[in-house]
Design goal:
Layout lengths: L3 H13 L3 H13 L1 H24 L1 H6 L4 H21 L16 H10 L1 H13 L7 H33 L3 H24 L1
Helix pairs in contact: 1-7, 1-8, 2-3, 2-5, 2-8, 2-9, 3-6, 3-7, 3-8, 5-9
Length: about 200
């Protein structure tokens, strides 16, 4: 496992950098609190494990080779991210009495990972750019998946807690609304950048 240090550094940079998943987790923490965001976090991690398996198997390359598949997948992903941004922007401030808005669910986090273009690009770069166990492809893939899952859990917990920390600062309904709107705009911007890249 000679390349583990470089792989870890690249994994933290790619998985931890701002993108649709990390920004929506931070927004979830700010809008709903860390405890109510744990299910969403679990969905994102579970979805990323599926993304890792899909990238490692080569299915992404096959899907994108189908004429018209890339624009259709991109449009579906963009629609889902716009829906998430709307949910974040319209979330009531924490502690609002009678609030009927629910925090994003495990299924929502799972779906986000499956449609997140940044996730596929990051996993493809990590899988193709590093060899942890030379000459043993299946063990190499298993090692990468294990390390990546630990990194993804760690950085996503940090983003969720960062958002929850913002909630403590912005208890005022007006300030919380501004934070929610800001994260919704950042989420849409990160998706636009990922789709244009």
């Amino acid at each position: 496992m000679d390349g583990i240090a470089g792989f870890l550094l690249a994994a933290v940079a790619l998985a931890g950098s701002p993108g649709p998943a990390t920004l929506s987790l931070t927004a979830t923490g700010a809008a709903f609190g860390a405890r109510r965001g744990l299910s969403y976090l679990a969905g994102i991690v579970a979805g990323m494990v599926v993304v890792m398996a899909v990238v490692a198997s080569g299915l992404v390359g096959l899907l994108m080779a189908i004429p018209g598949a890339a624009p259709a997948v991109g449009a579906l992903a963009a629609a889902y991210f716009l829906y998430l941004a709307w949910r974040i922007a319209t979330a009531p401030p924490l502690g609002a009495t009678g609030a009927k808005t629910h925090a994003p669910t495990l299924a929502a986090g799972f779906l986000l990972s499956l449609v997140n273009p940044k996730g596929y690009a990051a996993m493809a770069a990590l899988y193709s750019g590093f060899v942890l166990v030379p000459g043993r492809v299946s063990i190499d893939i298993a090692a990468k998946m294990t390390v990546l899952t630990m990194v993804i859990v760690s950085v996503n917990v940090a983003w969720l807690l960062a958002g929850a920390g913002l909630t403590r600062v912005f208890r005022d309904p007006r300030s919380n609304r501004i934070v929610n709107l800001l994260f919704a705009v950042l989420l849409v911007a990160s998706v636009a950048l990922a789709l244009l890249a």
